[in-house]
Amino acid sequence: MLLPSGPQRDSAQLLVYRASSHRNRFTFTMLTSVVLAAVAIASTTVSASPIAENKAIAIPLHKRGTPLSKDGKVVASALARQVTKVQRKYAHGHAAYKKNTGLELFKGVSSKVKRQAEPLIDEENDLLWAGTITIGTPGQSFLIDFDTGSADLWVPSSSCTSSGCAPHDKYTSSSSSTSSKKSGTFSIGYGDGSTASGPIYTDTVTVAGLSATSQYFSPVTSESSSFAFASDPEDGILGLAFNSISAIGQPTIIDNLYSQGKISAPTFAFRLATTGSELYLGGVNTAKYTGSISYVPLTSKTYWLTTGSSSVGSTVAYSGAMIIDSGTTVIVGPTSSVSSWWSKVSGAAACSTSVCGTTGYYTYLCASPPTVSFTFNGAKFTIPSSDFNLGTVDNAGTRCVGAIVGTSGVPDNAWIVGDTLMKQTYTVFDQANSRVGFATPK
Questions:
Q1: Catalytic residue list contains 394
Q2: What domain range is 421 assigned to?
Q3: Is the residue at 96 inside a domain?
Q4: Which of 101, 144, 313, 333 gets the most CB atoms within 10 Å of its CB?
Q5: Whether residue 264 is found in the same domain as residue 332
Q6: Which of 203, 255, 325, 419 is catalytic?
Q7: Which of 147, 152, 235, 255 does the annotation list as catalytic?
Q8: Residue 75 lies in a domain
């Protein structure tokens, strides 16, 4: 991946997105801080010393609510849809990597994923880690999911008349003076027949005032009603993984912002929290973590794939590959590995499909929640029971559903670690040095 050096820019940009709605709609809040800083990251562990920048920006973010429960009780269709969404995303990334390289990245990933017949129920008070970007000149606004588990940018096109596109904002190429159609097509297709496809374009993409010119993306012209995003509030995806898993096969927005001198390093960091959440591009915000950042090397430049371990109490229940994925809510792993992990939890039992909507979820006694932690290069992060608990299985509230889920159709030798853990860490994605960093958040 070509990463030419760019000029240092000691400046800061801020994007604020807030939209409210009422019945049968989601509520979102996104205040994304983009701080452009020259960052020197030279060792495996670095202290929280000040970065050369004009100022740090503290931006409050409302708590992300859980769309997986209502009134404390889990919603079966929502739990099932979480699993299906992860299976679909990794099937797409695996297929793109094989197309780009001719190699198999993982075993166990299949494109034949069963579709959930029951749609996700829109609950009030749902909050998503999503924000606005603009595409084109003048800019056309879209609500986007910033996703470290994928590498393509796509939004619906104004030419899309299928039901899946209907709820979303749409891109009109003729309204942009910088739009350029390219050869080839973009397509996401799955064994259950759900699809999203469209042409490939370049245009100016702007995030918080930072513009990447000639950015490749797809304005999809067809999005089936069964497609994963048809009922989601976000319009599309902005992938933050490596372009080796890109179906379009072109530089990502991080690549372009860096090569065009808009950020001083191909580094970004997430802080997801009850308050004060933010996304930084081009560096890290020392005001958002304490102590040092513990870095773990990547095992490949595909996903943000690294290694770590997960413990139940003092017992290491899993140790191995982990994909750090901001676009996934829970923690997902292969069936056998997750089953082994849950065997260490006293009183754990498999959740029935009638309650949890699919296989792979587990329940535990709400009165005796397990102590769950993840460790990276010696740095340990504990998941509080309030985040690990997805909801109860009945009104009595005696058994709770845990946030570690087993399923087929995902990498057979890696866990997909989502927001359940990321809310406990300050997470740094350092592309130049091929590593992920974890620090104790403030």
A1: no
A2: 290-441
A3: no
A4: 333
A5: no
A6: 325
A7: 147
A8: no
